[in-house]
Amino acid sequence: MSNKNLFAALHSSFVSNADRIAFELTQDASQVSYAQLGELTQRMAQTLLDLEVQSEQRVLVQVGKSVPAVALYLACLQVGAVYVPINTAYTAGEVEYFLGDAEPALFVCDPREEDAFTELASCNVRSLGMDGAGSFGMAASQAVLSKRSAKVATKKSADIAAILYTSGTTGRSKGAMLSHGNLLSNATTLLDYWGWKDSDVLLHALPIFHVHGLFVALHCALLSGTPMLFMPAFDAAEVLPLLSRATVMMGVPTFYSRLLSLPEFDRGSCTNMRLFISGSAPLTEQTFNEFEDRTGQRILERYGMSETLMNTSNPLSGQRVAGTVGFALPGVSARVVNDSGQELMAGDVGVIEVKGPNVFQGYWRMPEKTAEEFRKDGFFITGDLGSMDLEGRVTIVGREKDLVISGGYNVYPKEVERLLDELPSIAESAVIGVPHADFGEAVVAVVVPTGAPVSDADLREALADSLARYKQPKAVFNLEELPRNAMGKVQKAQLRKVHAKLFTG
Ligand code: MLC
Ligand code: AMP
Q1: Class of domain 403-498 (CATH, top level)
Q2: Where are the domains of the chain?
Q3: What number does the ligand 1 atom closest to the CA of 235 have?
């Protein structure tokens, strides 16, 4: 049986594309070839082995976006460790949870945090700077490579390659376990479905701790030897002059609405572009239409999740319909069901369920939770609400799960409410998402204070150490009591209605 380690496929691409450029860093135009990426990865793999990281052990990583960070991911694959990336915006308080839950053998953090985390963590702690500095980076640069250096660990398709944490409705983050087979099959499907070409150049401006930037974008490029224009973070003004050198860009809807806000962005800005892909949050019909009017390009919208990678996509050739997420990808089955799991007629709205080689292996150390989210016939219950037309085209209309998606980041109200309710100044709270022109949705808190009204500044201060900034409410409202229905359930729909125009005028 051949080795199903995803790294085996990536490595053979690095060998066949050795002389091609893998990354051009947009900060300084420096370039890294596929051969250099392969060597850096080999050094990092050796460093992991020198630190005695074993196959299947977790490596928790919270580092800035950089080529060394990509190489660290690849090195984890190579030695068979399980890569666990977390958002760089998480506070030390949030990181502590992941350290406890993932029980990593090694935590790699930003060099500025290394001393503090060495005190806090019970595992090995090392650091990696965006320039390759830090204790892990230094060790990798000094690693002695020899014939006995790290090999490619042998893996089966179902073996876990990565755990991606995704918050739960209980407010506790769940680790979605993705296998080598999940990652490789989804990437090869996308390469084919999106017609990846030898001449493609990918503009990579997404963060690399989520499915979108880490797996969808990087895997497509790395497996096909595509050069990437690699940006540390999205900035519309910086993207604009780079577009003429790229052929493919992937982004969350905020990327596209921000590009449209630049008056100089037009057809001439993207003469070589063949594909703008959007996902992670709903792309409004308004953005889709304005984008087409301005550039002549119809954005290709697709739909995915941390648990499932990519499920559906609008077609490369054929009609891309605004407001829809297209068809189930080849090998993926999608259906829309009612509460009792019965499949609905075309056009009827229900919960979207999916099955296929893309669907994850379960939640880390949560067998009951895993069992709850799967049907007996193996379909995964996404919690997204939508419909499917007679041709199989899927439209997402909402979410059954209480979740806010802000600028492509998920915020689970429960997690924020739990922290607010612990504050002495707050008796109870309800956290909602309201429309926002830039982020799509924004987090808003409605609170019942115990005494004096709570201000935005009070909340900011109270949550500074415990909650990432993007999850913090962008506005707070004080009420004497929360609206509840006869069953005592907070009527969030009513609150959302009241504050619907808060950020959209
Ligand atoms: C930043 N801020 C946000 C935010 N991003 N607030 C709400 N929602 C967000 N998404 C806040 C910061 O906390 C800060 O607040 C202020 O905005 C400026 O920070 P910044 O870092 O300068 O922000 P900016 O560069 O403008 O970032 C916006 C963004 C970024 C849209 C470029 O959020 C982004 O790259 N999003 C992509 C997310 C993504 O990759 N999702 C994929 C998930 S995978 P303050 O108050 O301190 O000033 C998935 C599956 C799938 O969903 O299908 O793909
Ligand atoms: P995450 O847990 O970060 O992977 O987010 C997954 C969720 O993002 C999905 O369950 C959807 O709710 C949402 N999502 C992803 N892509 C789209 C899309 N194209 N349109 C609407 N929602 C999307």
Answers
A1: alpha beta
A2: 30-179, 234-400, 403-498
A3: 25
384 lines ligand 2 (CB under 6 A): yes
CA of 47 to the centre of ligand 1 (A): 32
The edge-to-edge listing of strands for the beta sheet with 440-449 is 426-436, 440-449, 475-478
Residues 364 and 173: their CA atoms lie apart, in Å, by 10
Q: In the CATH hierarchy, which top-level class contains the domain 30-179?
A: alpha beta
| Domains 30-179 and 234-400 in one fold | yes
Superfamily name with CATH number, domain 234-400: ANL, N-terminal domain (3.40.50.12780)
What's the pTM value of the predicted model, to 2 decimals?
Answer: 0.97
- Give the number of residues written for the chain: 505
Strand-pairing partners, residue 374, are 380
pLDDT in tens, 91-149: 999 999 999 999 999 999 999 999 999 999 999 999 999 999 999 999 999 998 876 67
Ligand 1: which atom is nearest the Cα of residue 406? 8
Ligand 1 center–CA 409 separation, angstroms: 6
Residue range 200-237, pLDDT digits in tens: 999 999 999 999 999 999 999 999 999 999 999 999 99
Residue with tokens 């905020």: 254
